[in-house]
Design a protein that fits this description.
The complex is a heterodimer of chains A (296) and B (157). Chain A is of the alpha+beta class. Chain A is built from twelve helices and 14 strands. In chain B, helix 3 packs across helix 6. Chain B starts with a strand and ends with a helix. Chain B is built from six helices and five strands; from the N terminus they run E-E-H-E-E-E-H-H-H-H-H. Chain B has 157 residues and is of the alpha+beta class. Classes of the chains: A alpha+beta (296), B alpha+beta (157). The complex binds flavin-adenine dinucleotide and FE2/S2 (inorganic) cluster (2 copies). The site of one FE2/S2 (inorganic) cluster has 10 residues of chain B, from loops.
Chain lengths: 296, 157
């Protein structure tokens, strides 16, 4: 299948040039990073841009930086780059694990994490993981730079707060100072390449506070704020977990699609929350299932 | 707007004209005459269109030809320029394929894996080829053949 839609291909050498180009075409421009989403969207006529602005010629966007406890992931960093990064493996083992469950190697070699959140598909794996770390997206546009908390980033399926002419240059997050453990639970139809039917991410601190997020069970990746509030300051017990699981229907709004029914998703998120909470808390002390093992 | 691009394809420098909306897979097969990348799903799911781009496996159905200007592409044809590689020999010995449609992608994924990890476990092999779909074999003989290359390499050191 060839692409029928015609467009200009522009490959700016600097960020400024990229911003100017994107601003010039306005809503008729699309940024191209790894292309793993965009090319299919254009081939299937789902988006029909006048210009495709390839940002792969811009220097400096391919860096993973960890300085003073702050991690910054550039817009051209691929899932393979993250997977191979020693600092991610050591300091953010749950991100390391997640990158190994995104698609397969041939996609991960191209697909970027920033592209993943710019696509804003409700089943994206980066969204929920970045949400528990309170990450922020670094944005540049015609009127300068801004930093958007990930909580405010997603508006709905395939919609973000990115404005006309803006480009995301990276995503940034802080390594929690407090002792913590985390767990990413991704439900798939089979081991190997599959999008999440549902996902639950838990970040648990030694002081019994928790951050919880869900993927594939709402129009966008979301935090489980009611459950976080219920758990805050309380040590995990079987009863408390059951109370938390009972709140799941208030947090999420799954739909039925080709990958799962809403009833199945609703039920499994309860099971995943229970296992994710237990594993994250055990991992605070270095026990529990090793990072990389699936608890579902 | 036609663009002139230059690529190093299987160690040979090639210059050609492409349109911005030309997909790399089609250009490789039709303009450059390299037929090992196959047209399968055309949406990144099956791995039949795999090539090595600067040494890493990619799906050519998801790449515009203009994007690879100045880059290096190796296809199965380039890999076996001086005879079958150890992976190919092992796949042959294990009679791993039936129709062979998935074979170029499988060989390249296995080549990339073995380059990074010379003696992969069965699970590591499964993970490395999880984006290469095969309709015929049930994967077992493919996995066995790749694991066997690693075992042989392990013995040598
Ligand atoms: C077979 C297959 C399996 C997959 N499996 C998974 C999976 O398991 N989990 C998962 O989460 N995802 C999965 N994906 C989707 C994943 O590959 C993409 O979401 C990818 O991360 C997008 O990044 P990209 O660099 O390829 O973006 P592109 O395709 O280049 O761009 C995607 C969108 O974001 C915009 N964009 C990209 N970068 C920027 C930027 N810097 N600033 C502004 N806008 C930008 C583009 O304009 C476009 O609209 C899969 C895809 C395929 C094809
Ligand atoms: S044809 Fe490219 S992945 Fe299937
Ligand atoms: S041998 Fe036929 S698709 Fe793999």
């Amino acid at each position: 299948m060839a692409i029928a839609h015609e467009f200009d291909y522009v490959k700016p050498g600097t960020l400024r040039e990229a911003v100017n180009t994107v601003a010039r075409y306005g809503t008729r421009a699309r940024v191209l990073a790894g292309g793993t989403d965009l090319i299919t969207l254009i081939a299937e006529n789902m988006v029909t841009p006048d210009a495709v602005v390839d940002i792969k010629g811009i220097a400096g966007l391919d860096k993973i930086e960890f300085k003073n406890g702050v991690l910054t992931i550039g817009a051209l960093v691929t899932f393979s780059d993250l997977r191979d990064s020693p600092v991610i493996a050591k300091k953010f083992p749950v991100i390391h694990q997640m990158t190994g469950w995104v698609a397969s190697v041939g996609i991960r070699n191209r697909a970027t994490m920033v592209g993943n959140i710019c696509s804003a598909v409700p089943c994206c794996d980066s969204g929920p993981i970045l949400l528990v770390y309170d990450a922020a997206v670094l944005v540049v546009g015609p009127s300068g730079k801004r930093k958007v908390p990930l909580r405010d980033w997603f508006l709905g399926p395939r919609k973000t707060v990115l404005k006309r002419g803006e480009i995301a240059t990276g995503v940034t997050l802080a390594l929690p100072r407090k002792k913590h453990g985390a767990c990413f639970v991704k439900l798939r139809r089979y081991e190997g390449e599959d999008l999440a039917q549902a996902s639950v991410t838990v970040l648990a601190y030694a002081d019994n506070t928790y951050r919880i997020s869900f993927g594939s069970v709402a129009p966008r990746p979301i935090r489980g704020e009611r459950i976080e509030a219920l758990l805050a300051g309380r040590a995990l017990s079987d009863d408390l977990i059951q109370e938390a699981v009972r709140l799941v229907p208030e947090e999420i709004a799954p739909i039925t699609d080709i990958r799962a029914t809403k009833e199945y998703r609703m039920h499994m998120v309860g099971v995943m929350l229970e296992r994710g909470l237990r594993a994250a808390v055990e991992r605070i002390t270095g026990s529990g299932p090793a990072y990389g093992t699936s608890v579902i | 707007m036609t663009k002139r691009i230059t690529v190093i394809l299987n160690n040979e420098t090639r210059s050609l004209d492409v349109e911005p909306n030309d997909i790399l897979l089609n250009v490789l097969r039709e303009t450059l005459g390299v037929k090992s990348p196959k047209i399968g799903c055309e949406r990144g799911d099956c791995g039949a269109c795999t090539v090595l781009l600067d040494g890493k496996t990619v799906r050519t159905c998801l790449i515009l030809a203009v994007e690879v200007d100045g880059h290096e592409i190796t296809t199965l044809e380039g890999l076996s320029q001086s005879g079958l590689t150890p992976v190919q020999q092992s796949l042959l010995k294990h009679n791993s394929f039936q129709c062979g449609f998935c074979a170029p992608g499988m060989v390249l994924s296995a080549t990339e894996l073995l380059g990074k990890n010379p003696s992969p476990s069965q699970d590591e092999v499964k993970e490395a080829i999880s984006g290469n779909l095969c309709r015929c074999t049930g994967y077992e003989p493919v996995i066995d053949a790749i694991v066997a290359v690693g075992k042989k390499a392990g013995k040598r050191v």
